[in-house]
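Researcher: We plan to redesign the surface later, but first we want a full-length starting point. Tokens attached.
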């Protein structure tokens, strides 16, 4: 009977200790919560720059690229020399024509000046006849002055023609000289222009440009000559019209 109290006490102690053990097993591990999170590893930055794009990589190997221009095409040497000789002869004739037309200018102006003085003389005599109340003389002189004025107008038209002829001759000379200069440059390019072997020759490159400039100058001289020819024709037509008026007494 004396052993029972001890057994009961031992059983009671076990029952009281059981909830504490359960609580200890359910409690979270504080050491696991305190551990810091580890960041994932990142790759180190590359120190090598990418290669810059090229025309081939961007546009493709079929993209057009410029090459040395070949815009001057010359004729054969014989043709160029024949034209140069012809233009040189024309320049020589035109040079003589300029001198001749200048002489005709002076002569035509002299005729007009003479006619003007004659008309001034008639005007002076008409004034004297009017003052003398000589109507018959005055009327006769006025008729003659009108006829002389018609002559003067016709001679003035001839003077205009002489001036136009001189301008045309000078324009013809300029045009012929421009043609000669162009031919001289073309001869320097025969067998060299538009030939790959001379593509790197700076002299050929420069001469081609000079040839093109000479071609432009020749065209400008031709345009000026055409204007002069038209001007001369207009002046001659007016001289014909003035002659008709003179014959009609107008």
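Model: Full-length starting sequence:
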């Amino acid at each position: 009977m004396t052993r029972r109290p001890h057994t009961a006490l031992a059983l009671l102690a076990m029952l009281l200790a059981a909830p504490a053990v359960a609580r200890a097993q359910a409690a979270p591990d504080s050491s696991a919560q305190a551990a810091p999170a580890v960041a994932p590893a990142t790759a180190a930055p590359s120190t090598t720059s990418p290669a810059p794009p090229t025309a081939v990589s961007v546009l493709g190997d079929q993209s057009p690229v410029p090459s040395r221009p070949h815009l001057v095409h010359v004729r054969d040497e014989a043709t160029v020399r024949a034209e140069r000789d012809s233009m040189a002869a024309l320049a020589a004739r035109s040079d003589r024509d300029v001198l001749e037309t200048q002489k005709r200018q002076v002569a035509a102006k002299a005729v007009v000046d003479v006619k003007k003085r004659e008309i001034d003389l008639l005007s002076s005599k008409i004034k004297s006849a009017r003052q003398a109340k000589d109507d018959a003389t005055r009327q006769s002189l006025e008729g003659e002055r009108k006829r002389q004025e018609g002559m003067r107008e016709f001679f003035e038209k001839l003077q205009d023609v002489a001036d136009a002829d001189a301008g045309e001759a000078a324009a013809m000379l300029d045009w012929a000289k421009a043609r000669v200069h162009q031919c001289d440059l073309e001869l320097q390019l025969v067998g060299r222009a538009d030939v790959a072997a001379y593509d790197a020759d700076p002299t050929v490159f420069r001469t081609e440009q000079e040839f093109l400039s000479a071609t432009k100058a020749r065209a400008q001289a031709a345009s000026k000559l055409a204007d002069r020819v038209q001007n001369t024709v207009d002046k001659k037509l007016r001289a014909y019209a003035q002659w008709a008026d003179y014959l009609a007494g107008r």
